[in-house]
Every structure is written in structure tokens, then in C-alpha cells.
Specification:
With 202 residues, this protein is α+β, with helices and mostly antiparallel strands. It has 2 domains: 126 residues, Immunoglobulins (Immunoglobulin-like); 61 residues. It has 1 helix and 10 strands, in the order ββββββββββα. The strands form 2 sheets. A 6-stranded antiparallel β-sheet has the order 1-2-3-4-8-7, with no helix packed on it. It has a 4-stranded antiparallel β-sheet with strand order 6-5-9-10, with no helix packed on it.
């Protein structure tokens, strides 16, 4: 596996060469963040004679490479082989969908053939940022600890509500009994008043 240095970038893409061909890779959607479906873009075109690599532009793209080239995406010890699809609107452009689940730097190994030229090239697309980089106002990812803490708080609030409801129920029962006692007292006073009035007439 050839491990060339990062030679140049354009529009957030990485540019390198193999044989007589210019290769450019980058993410389809930038800024790229972890946990969102994205894809690696690959542009292949002939090198222009007499120009330094930094001066080379993508033009006259090489078509028909979706079967002869593949991208091996590497993150630490994890690897995945991504088949390429050809962009029918831009000759020489290819893409491979992927969902980078972790933030950090990925390595893209371009493997296969461009005509008679064997390709075994390591390239490095821009860094994948943490998803919280674009989340507002709060990150949506919840850790297990946060879930447990939230569950504990919720149980505490439920218990408080139960205790409040029980106290309120007891208070209501006492209030009801007080009202009944007052009612009986009023009835007793009325009966006594009527009886006193009758006794006065007698």
C-alpha cells in the first residue's frame, strides 16, 4: 500500500496522483458530522502535462471506473469496502455512501485499476466533526448515565406527586367532615330556635 503525503486540497477535498491521473476525494456534504449519512466523492481525470499537482484542475473526467475501482474506508482498526457508483451528470465523478458514526480522521484507500494503471493509494478526507458541532440548542445524543439520572429524577417527582395527592385527599376528607359537623350544628340551632319560639307563644 502506497502511503503518500497529503499533497493538496481544493474546496475541502484532497488531491493526489497515480501514474498519469489526478485523483480528488472529499465528503459529499460538508461540514461532515458523525451519525449522519454522507458519502465519499472521487474525481478522476488525466494530468495536464507541464503543470504542478497543485495547479491541476479536474476536467475531461475518466468514465467507466465504477467496476474497476473501490474505496476502502478505514477508521482506527475498523475497515469497510465501499463500491463506487458513477455520477451520470459529471463524467469522471464517483461516489460511495457511508454513515461515519464516530468523529475523527478517516483514511480512504483507493484500490483497483484505471486502465492499465494499478491504483493503491491512501488519501485522507477532511475530519469528521462531533455531531454536537451543529446541534442547537442542546445535543440530541443522550448517554446511559443521563438516561438513568433522568429516570431517577422522574421517579422522585412521581413519588412527590403521590405524597401531595395523599395529603390533599386527607385534607379533603377532614374538610368534608367539618362541613358535615357545621351543617348538623346549624340544623340543631334552627330546631332549638323554633322550639323556643313555640314555647314563648305558650
Amino acid at each position: 500500500m502506497l502511503i503518500p503525503s497529503l499533497i493538496g486540497t481544493a474546496l475541502g477535498h484532497t488531491i493526489d496522483s497515480v501514474g498519469e491521473y489526478r485523483l480528488e476525494i472529499g465528503w459529499m456534504n460538508e461540514p461532515v458530522v458523525s451519525g449522519e449519512t454522507n458519502g465519499i466523492e472521487l474525481y478522476v481525470s488525466p494530468l495536464e502535462p507541464g503543470l504542478e499537482l497543485e495547479e491541476q484542475q479536474f476536467k475531461d473526467g475518466v468514465t467507466g471506473l465504477h467496476k474497476s475501482l473501490k474505496i476502502q474506508l478505514v477508521y482506527k482498526d475498523a475497515k469497510i469496502m465501499l463500491p463506487l457508483s458513477e455520477d451520470h451528470n459529471i463524467p469522471g465523478k464517483y461516489y460511495a455512501f457511508v454513515n461515519p458514526t464516530s468523529s475523527g480522521y478517516y483514511q480512504a484507500n483507493i484500490l483497483g485499476n484505471i486502465g492499465e494503471t494499478t491504483v493503491s493509494l491512501s488519501m485522507h478526507p477532511p475530519k469528521v466533526e462531533e455531531r454536537s458541532y451543529i446541534e442547537f440548542p442542546h445535543p440530541s445524543d443522550i448517554t446511559l448515565t443521563q438516561l438513568i439520572d433522568g429516570h431517577t429524577i422522574l421517579l422522585g417527582e412521581v413519588n412527590k406527586l403521590k405524597e401531595s395527592a395523599a395529603k390533599l385527599e386527607n385534607q379533603n376528607q377532614h374538610t368534608y367532615l367539618n362541613y358535615v359537623g357545621i351543617g348538623f350544628g346549624i340544623v340543631g340551632i334552627l330546631i332549638a330556635a323554633v322550639a323556643l319560639k313555640k314555647s314563648n307563644k305558650i
